[in-house]
Amino acid sequence: MAVRLAIACDHGGFHLKQALVQALAGQGIDIVDLGVGSPDPVDYPDVARTLTEAILRKEADFGLLLCGTGIGVSIAANRRPGIRAALCTDPYTARMSREHNDANVLCLGGRVVGPGLAEEIVRAFLAAGFAGGRHARRIQKLDPP
Ligand code: RB5
Q1: pTM for the full predicted model
Q2: For the chain, how many structural domains are there in total?
């Protein structure tokens, strides 16, 4: 079954989002494009909220958030219980964010990584799986009941 990847950006991530939507669509990835649809300025907390709500409603398996640095959207996304957002700049940290942190949102900086590297980071994130075990105990401590 295809993995459902929701994607959203502010103006700083717009051009990278467009490139990734084109590069990733198909090949076992269903893209849920939540915008924005133009490079006009918007506020990153708003796009982070749109995407994290979609993840929490299980409308997608994973989320991909982009802003200029990836920092703003990662801070905003991680304020939502149940969201584990990882700001990554290389495939290794993307893979580890899934294996050890069970990250459900990947954050990228549209002014930091180019489209080729970004695609490799996304593919590494999606190809990895949560290792469980001791890491599951640690994940549970992030969102105590
Ligand atoms: C917008 O200029 C920029 O501040 C935003 O995209 C992001 O990088 C914030 O963290």
Answers
A1: 0.97
A2: 1
